[in-house]
């Protein structure tokens, strides 16, 4: 219809009565289609790489009964982290569990880093002791924290009854349920 | 001094070729994408900064669900090992499983074990029917009691079945599951002298400013977190 108007407006150059139909171009603007195509490509690339699960390697120490075979650590270079109820984290330095201090997952990074800066990197060991109130997610989080803080040596050990009772006392004192 | 007149060119470009390339790439990515296999057990894995990819072949997978129940499954390629394991358990415990019940575990790709030995026969009966385990509340393999940790027996059977092959152990736990279940699983591995295993996690990026982040920046290598 638009073509008809322009041809008539042109002033009857071809003579009266001669109607020339203009040929319609078959060309389509493909730009939006290309846009859409690339948008979908980006979407697929992102979603495929994101959904791939990753693996966290965990090596356990072998249970040895003979004290001579056990790994020795310097008392001053040890940091013990215990995982309690409701994402609570407790820690103490050295071998004395009565020096227990309460912390959280957010704050534990500074504790680890602080201890790491103060000790010889060859001796520094973190001992992880999850209690039965902790969750699997807590364990993975704290192992991940070791990775984030670039702690080379850490070991996962079962908690001793003394430490567990201390945690329970601290929890009771803090009013944590 | 006459200047040469530059002919004015149209800025329109033929987009057809570009469009072709775009859709070719698109179809390639769609076809090449591996879709998540339907998982019989729903588990929300915790996050970690590790970038290593979970192995897919020769895998013994222990799943811990939200309630702390433990399940055992094997990767799709380990059909021979699956039947070896179920045979070994059958003779050891004298369960009297029929061939059909054994096949229910060894032939199906998504099969898993999630009951104590005593309930294994009815469990496999249900598994042999399609969707037979839907809405069935299974007990899980007992692990929390050190004296009656049945996963030890299962893992031992798996070690025997995988003899000569490198078996990879993968633990896929729900972040809400309680620690005693995981402790029981670790105990079962330790009893079989398996001290190396991998935990399935969802990837997150390394927090900026942390030691690992600095390490990655200095080495400037991708995947240093693995």
Plain-language structure description:
By secondary structure, chain A is α/β, with parallel strands linked by helices. Chain A has a domain at 75-174: Nucleotidyltransferase, domain 5, CATH 3.30.420.270. In chain A, 37% of the residues lie in helices and 18% in strands. The longest helix of chain A is centred in the N-terminal third of the chain and has 20 residues, at 31-50. Chain A is elongated, with a radius of gyration of 35 Å. Chain B has 226 residues and is α/β, with parallel strands linked by helices. Chain B has a domain at 55-203. The longest helix of chain B is centred in the N-terminal third of the chain and has 17 residues, at 16-32. Chain B is elongated, with a radius of gyration of 26 Å. Classes of the chains: A alpha/beta (177), B alpha/beta (226). The interface between A and B is large, with 50 and 58 residues. Strand 1 of chain A pairs antiparallel with strand 5 of chain B.
Number of DSSP helices of chain B? 7
Please summarize the sheet with the most strands of chain B: 5 strands, mixed
Largest interface: A-B, 50 and 58 residues
The assigned structural class of chain A equals alpha/beta
- The whole-angstrom Rg of chain B is 26 Å
Q: What spatial order of strands do you see in the largest sheet of chain A?
A: 4-3-2-5-6
Helicity level of chain B: 25-40%
H-E string of chain A: HHEEEEHEHEH
Uncertain runs of chain B are none
Strand content of chain B: 5-15%
CATH topology of the domain at 75-174 in chain A: Nucleotidyltransferase, domain 5
Assembly type: heterodimer
């Amino acid at each position: 219809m638009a073509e008809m108007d322009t041809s008539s407006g042109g002033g009857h150059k071809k003579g009266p009565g001669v109607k020339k139909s203009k040929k319609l171009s078959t060309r389509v603007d493909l730009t939006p289609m290309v846009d859409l195509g690339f948008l979908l490509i980006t979407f697929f690339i992102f979603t495929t790489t994101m959904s791939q699960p990753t693996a966290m390697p965990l090596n356990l120490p072998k249970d040895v009964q003979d004290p001579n075979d056990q790994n020795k650590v310097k008392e001053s270079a040890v940091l013990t982290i215990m995982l309690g109820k409701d994402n609570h984290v407790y820690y103490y330095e050295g071998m004395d569990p009565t020096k227990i201090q309460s912390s959280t997952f957010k704050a534990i990074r500074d504790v680890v880093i602080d201890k790491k800066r103060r000790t010889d990197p060859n001796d520094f060991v973190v001992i992880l002791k999850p209690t039965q109130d902790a969750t699997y997610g807590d364990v993975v989080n704290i192992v991940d924290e070791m990775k984030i803080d670039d702690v080379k040596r850490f070991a996962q050990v079962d908690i001793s009854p003394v430490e567990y009772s201390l945690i329970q006392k601290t929890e009771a004192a803090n009013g944590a349920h | 001094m006459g200047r040469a007149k530059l002919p004015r060119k149209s800025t329109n470009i033929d987009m057809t070729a570009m469009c072709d390339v775009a859709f070719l790439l698109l179809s390639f990515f769609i076809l090449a994408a591996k879709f998540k296999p339907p998982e019989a057990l729903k588990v929300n894995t915790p996050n970690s900064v590790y970038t290593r990819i979970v192995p897919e072949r020769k895998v013994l997978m222990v799943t811990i669900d939200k309630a702390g129940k433990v399940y055992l499954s094997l990767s799709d390629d380990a059909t021979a090992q699956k039947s070896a394991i179920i045979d070994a358990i059958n003779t050891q415990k004298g369960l009297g499983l029929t061939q059909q019940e054994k096949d229910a575990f060894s032939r199906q790709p998504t099969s898993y074990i999630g009951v104590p030995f005593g309930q294994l026969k009815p469990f496999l009966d249900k598994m042999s029917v399609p969707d037979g385990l839907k809405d069935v509340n299974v007990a899980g393999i007992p692990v929390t009691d050190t004296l009656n940790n049945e996963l030890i027996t299962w893992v031992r059977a798996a070690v025997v079945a995988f003899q000569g092959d490198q078996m990879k152990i993968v633990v896929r736990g729900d972040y809400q599951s309680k620690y005693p279940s995981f402790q029981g699983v670790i105990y079962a591995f330790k009893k079989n002298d398996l001290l190396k295993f991998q935990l399935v996690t969802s990837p997150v990026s390394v927090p900026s400013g942390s030691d690992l982040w600095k390490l990655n920046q200095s080495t400037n290598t991708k995947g240093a977190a693995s």
